[in-house]
Amino acid sequence: MSAVTLERGLAELGLELPADAQGKLLAFAALLAKWNKVYNLTSIRDAGQMLTHHLLDSLAVLPHLGDIERLADVGSGGGLPCIPLAIATQGREPVLAISSIETVNKKASFQQQAKIELGLATLTVLNERVENVRPDRPFDAVISRAFSELADFVGLTQHLLRPGGRFLAMKGVYPDDEIARLPANFRVVEAVPLTVPGLGAERHLIIVEKS
């Protein structure tokens, strides 16, 4: 996995990360590849594709998070986007506390191991079904990457959000049909086209609020 490719990709995204972040991102990718041989965490096996399709794709949303302090990542699988985001925001003020909600035990176990090995104090891993999670404090935003279609996403996670909080759905091509199926009390406030270095595919961040 090329440190040069990662550095170039981060520069194209306009991201300046903490000094040790690139090393931790590469270590995470290596850990994901290692566990993937046994636990099938992701269908991507190629190291280069893992960098573009997972790391850079996850980090492309970073400029659009704003100054939120509490983020939930729902159906995070192999820790995407939560672990790259946790690595990239270490030492940030205000602190970004990220809770990963993953129902599959082996995937949550992998994330917990990555949290320990990479020293990610701001990451909490919850091995729960999202509908069973009752946070002590509601989240500022809930993010998902290939978790479900928009209507299911907002329906299953709305109890996690504070009033005025936002749903952040990472999608491929612009999801006209999914947006049309949103319940009437939810609205798309922004649809951000994302350009992921080396990906060569459409990506969008769909930002939804409950009205």
Structure in words:
Keywords: Cytoplasm, Methyltransferase, rRNA processing, S-adenosyl-L-methionine, Transferase. It is an enzyme of class 2 (transferase). It holds the Pfam family GidB. By secondary structure, the chain is an alpha/beta fold. It is 36% helix and 23% strand. It has helices at residues 3-13, 21-39, 47-59, 82-88, 105-118, 150-157, 176-180; strands at residues 70-74, 97-101, 123-126, 139-145, 161-171, 186-194, 203-210. The protein is globular, with a radius of gyration of 16 Å. It starts with a helix and ends with a strand.
Q: Major sheet, described briefly?
A: 7 strands, mixed
Q: What structural category arises from helix and sheet content? A: alpha/beta
Helices, by number, come to 7
Coarse morphology = globular
- The CATH superfamily label reads Vaccinia Virus protein VP39
Family: Belongs to the methyltransferase superfamily. RNA methyltransferase RsmG family.
Keywords: Cytoplasm, Methyltransferase, rRNA processing, S-adenosyl-L-methionine, Transferase
EC number: 2.1.1.170
Catalytic activity: guanosine(527) in 16S rRNA + S-adenosyl-L-methionine = N(7)-methylguanosine(527) in 16S rRNA + S-adenosyl-L-homocysteine
Comma- or semicolon-separated keywords:
211 residues; rRNA_ssu_MeTfrase_G; alpha/beta; 7 helices; methyltransferase; 7 strands; Ribosomal RNA small subunit methyltransferase G
Topology of this structure?
Elements: H1 3-13, H2 21-39, H3 47-59, E1 70-74, H4 82-88, E2 97-101, H5 105-118, E3 123-126, E4 139-145, H6 150-157, E5 161-171, H7 176-180, E6 186-194, E7 203-210
Helix pairs in contact: 1-3, 2-3, 2-4, 2-5
Binding site for S-adenosyl-L-methionine: 75, 80, 130-131, 145
Pfam family, one: GidB
EC number: 2.1.1.170
